[in-house]
Prior knowledge:
Elements: E1 6-10, H1 14-26, E2 30-34, H2 37-43, E3 51-55, H3 63-73, E4 78-82, H4 87-95, E5 100-103, H5 108-139, H6 144-154, H7 159-166, H8 170-183, H9 189-198, H10 201-204
Parallel strand pairs: 1-2, 1-3, 3-4, 4-5
Amino acid sequence: MPDLQTIHIVDDDDAARQSLEFLLKSHKFTVQAHESADAFLASLPNLSLGCVISDVRMPGMNGIELLQRLKKTSTIPVILITGHGDVPLAVEAMKQGAADFLEKPYNDALLLDAIHAALNRLGKDGKREAERASILDKLATLSTRERQVLEGLMAGQANKVIAYELDISPRTVEIYRANVMNKMEAGSLSELVRKALVAGIWTMRLNR
């Protein structure tokens, strides 16, 4: 598992990058510094990911563009920093999914709080993604009819209603329902519904 304490600094300003690196190392973080967004992305496959702190205004790819690129392939939180902050830029950064947005000169305590909050969210997101992946694996083992029964259960339908819509007997629905519960490793209907919601079934409507 990646080291969630590794902080990546992306800033073209040598002095700013070194100052931030010193601050974070003094608080026991593992730090890797990068002089540009392109340099960071070039090293990305081999990096231990935890949190990115990026300047917004840099030559080449800027901080918001880096944020957009990362959001396509990663859940790594990105904190954006700028010396030219304004409200529209901050709003745009948050809309794009920034974990936080700070203006230079930033307060060290606020930055550290932002990092801890971002890492805490990352840990929780990682656990949710692992759970969702496990549930999706179980869903893949369901037959077409079992998936249809599960969809009926998600819609709050009784066995008799599901049986009528699928043109099968209520007893057959009970068998399919038991199979679904077993394959999904759900001990109760409420647990089955929770797992289905975690997997996004309510919005995907179970591709048949």
